[in-house]
Amino acid sequence: MFTGLVRGVGTVERVIPGAQRRTFVIAYALSEGDRSLGASVAISGVCLTVVASTARDFTVEAAFETLAVTTLGDLRPGSRVHLEPALRLGDALGGHLVAGHVDGLARVRSRVARGDALECGSTCRASWPATSRSRAACVSTASASPSTRSTPAGSRSA
């Protein structure tokens, strides 16, 4: 589980293609506990598992479906990614509870700048709960303006 609050920004150092996956080496000094083998880290909102690490970088893998339905398929060496280590029991939440798992795709149908925020309207399957289907507010920062593609949890707009 994650809070959805970005804890750091890493840089994709290498992308290693595979038959059904890509391996990403990300330059960022995670704490030893956060980079242990098998640890979960949200990479731009998508939960991935650490498969190797050093004091200066860590390695994760993304399978074909994850690459197809998230923005991770667009990553190249030099790409910057938002990072959040998984919550531990007793950690302060300070945000929301977010799984980091992609449940489906939505089509962005509207984007309205509202001060420092961007209101995004989306269309998705009727089977999703109504609270998930109507709108998402995306906070704008210096690196994310209303002209930036803003889809929740690293999901692509379909």
UniProtKB/TrEMBL annotation:
Residues 139-158 are annotated as: Disordered. It is an enzyme of class 2 (transferase). Pathway: Cofactor biosynthesis; riboflavin biosynthesis; riboflavin from 2-hydroxy-3-oxobutyl phosphate and 5-amino-6-(D-ribitylamino)uracil: step 2/2. The keyword Signal does not apply. The keyword Membrane does not apply. It catalyses: 2 6,7-dimethyl-8-(1-D-ribityl)lumazine + H(+) = 5-amino-6-(D-ribitylamino)uracil + riboflavin. PROSITE patterns: LUMAZINE_BIND (PS51177). Residues 140-158 have a biased composition (Low complexity). One of its GO terms (molecular function) is riboflavin synthase activity. Transmembrane segments: none annotated. Its EC number is 2.5.1.9. It holds the Pfam family Lum_binding. Catalyzes the dismutation of two molecules of 6,7-dimethyl-8-ribityllumazine, resulting in the formation of riboflavin and 5-amino-6-(D-ribitylamino)uracil. This is Riboflavin synthase. It comes from Nannocystis pusilla.
